[in-house]
Amino acid sequence: MTMSGCAHEHETWQASASGRWTPALEAHARECASCADVRIVTETLATASSPAPTAMAPSAIWFCARHIRRVRAMTRIELVSLFGQLAALAVITGAALSFVDWPAVWAAAEAVPAPAWAGLVALVTGALVARNLSERSTH
Amino acid sequence: MNEPAFAMLYARTAGPLCGYLRKLTGNAAVAEDLMQDSYIRFLSAAHVPDADDHQRHYLFRIATNLARDYFRRLKYDEHAPRPVAHVLPPSDDSRDVWRQLERVSPRDRELLLLAYVEGLSHAEIAKVTGLMRASVRPLLYRARKRFVAIVQGGAS
């Protein structure tokens, strides 16, 4: 099976699509297997009726696309703003932490008895669990 | 692209694009949905081509990709709208063609429609379908052979 086709395929397609055949091309299309196939395919597909589109008016599509573009631009701006806020928060937190007297903090923490730490951890865990349960019950 | 330019592009391409999608999907409602999506994606793209031919090819490329998504959805979504050629009225002369088109694989349909309805060259088909240019000729040749066999009743 050769797949090289025929040099007249494009002319055959044009003639099949327009219905304007020259006698020589028509005779060729009868003899040439490739061009005969092109003619069959083109003429068959042309018979498939396709009604005119009844879709949205172009102006509605235009406004819809413009709305999508705006939403995307807003999302981009919000992302940039969020990263800016996070960066500012990190700088402020770093600056605040640099003023902390860490040796004094560690000394104070060591002075707290172990049961107090355990109680604090239990309190925080209990609060988180209670919050989770209340969220589930509201959903 | 501004609105008047888009209106001109729409007037130039809506008919062929809708016909292409209608024949490709076999469902008029799906074709119209995909057509709208194609235009919206076209307009939402970061870079819209300037030349008329490039705009048309880009639009057909978007439409082809959306139709591929539709065919993928058909495989796993039983509620997705199906091709409806079988419910065409008996008086419709094109009933047989729709049935024949249904028997061709979506990729073959893409190639046949782009080549023999839209009249695109192999290079243009390669751009629209994302295939390599050298692959278009043999794939189109095989698609044509299969379709002719169906039309002539030689394939089951």
Would you write up a description of this structure?
The complex is a heterodimer of chains A (139) and B (156). With 139 residues, chain A is mostly helical. Chain A has helices at residues 9-18, 23-31, 33-46, 58-98, 102-111, 114-138. Chain A starts with 8 loop residues before the first helix and ends with a helix. The mean pLDDT of chain A is 87. Chain B has 156 residues and is an all-alpha fold. Chain B is globular, with a radius of gyration of 16 Å. The interface between A and B is large, with 33 and 44 residues.
Total beta-strand segments of chain A: 0
Strand content of chain B: under 5%
Number of helices of chain A: 6
Low-pLDDT windows of residues of chain B: none
One letter per element, helices H and strands E, the order of chain B comes to: HHHHHHH
Radius of gyration of chain A: 38 Å
Biggest sheet of chain A, open or closed, and with what strands and sense?
none
| Amount of beta strand of chain A | under 5%
Largest interface: A-B, 33 and 44 residues
| Ends apart, CA distance between termini of chain B | 48 Å
Q: How would you name the oligomeric state of the polypeptide chains in this document?
A: heterodimer
Overall, the morphology of chain A is: rod-shaped
Q: What level of helicity do the residues of chain B show?
A: over 70%
Biggest sheet overview of chain B: none
Determine Rg of chain B (CA atoms, Å): 16 Å
Low-confidence stretches of chain A: none
Helix-and-strand structural type of chain B: mainly alpha
Distance between the amino and carboxyl termini of chain A: 66 Å
* Mean of residue pLDDT values of chain A: 87
Q: What is the strand tally of chain B?
A: 0
